[in-house]
Amino acid sequence: MTARPSEELIMSIVTPLQSGRLEEALGAARTVEAAYPDFPITQNLIGIILQVMGQLEDALEPFQRAVAQRPDYVEAQNNLGVLLHRMDRHTEAATHFLAAIDQRPDYAEALNNLALLMRDMKREADAMVLLSRAIDVSPGYTQALINKADLLEKLGRMDEAALCRQRARLAGPAAKFSP
């Protein structure tokens, strides 16, 4: 069993990250990483911080380590997919989104992110199916509703897009970061 840092140590990373204090969050994460090098949540958090800081190449290795340390860590698989998508490495991104979805078929965030990848690959029909699935498993998922409305508009289906936007407004603001 891998040694695990205390909840207090994890929160020493998450709290500044949620407040946008990225340098502080990264410093705390590096401290925790030094003491617990095989803890995948720390690697995932480092990847998130570096990605938010715009250091995409540097974010790659921590996400890859998190997934290697724990292949069933669906959040890390999803985050690695998001990063690879941003880097225009679409095939690799799809592999990680699909790995997350295979392990947790109701993982709405990964379904949404794979849909965005499909949209960018000009596979609008696949994107629509995935967005619908994301909304089916998480009916109040505001970002998926907005993304579906955007896609419907792109396809010229304005009435359906308006209904989707209405649902998004009723669902409330998009979710904040959670580790």
Automatic annotation (TrEMBL):
TPR repeats, residue ranges: 40-73, 74-107
Top-rank taxon: Bacteria
Keyword Repeat: yes
Signal sequence annotation: none
InterPro entries associated with the record: TPR-like_helical_dom_sf (IPR011990), TPR_rpt (IPR019734), Ycf3/AcsC/BcsC/TPR_MFPF (IPR051685)
The keyword Repeat is annotated on this UniProt entry: yes
UniProt xrefs under Pfam families: TPR_16 (PF13432)
Organism of provenance: Litoreibacter ponti
Keywords assigned: Repeat, TPR repeat
Protein name: Tetratricopeptide repeat protein
